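EI: anyone free to look at a 101-residue chain?
SC: sure, send it
EI:
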Amino acid sequence: MFAAVFLLVAAQAAPAVAAGALDEPDPKAMSMAEIKAFNAKVPRGHPYFIRCVKTAAVGSLVARELSCRTNEQWNKADRVGNDNARDAIEHFKGKSANTSG
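SC: here you go
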């Protein structure tokens, strides 16, 4: 009985989004208020949930750059970066840094 009530409450608390109900957002064209309103409709693990990351601006100790992307876009960027690193390793594999012979 308790488990059924818990599941009912959890289902009401979590936003329900059908698979094809949302169009892919463009986080770069959205304001922070629009991003927060959009994220309120989707669960954190959804491919269209928007995550924003602050990084230090190059050459500055104070300035920060904000990069917002969907989970799907972050995953694609990770895959591309890993593929590029793997290709670079394969390219230089077997080449010796020591050229004296």
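EI: The first strand starts at residue 50 and ends at 56.
SC: 👍
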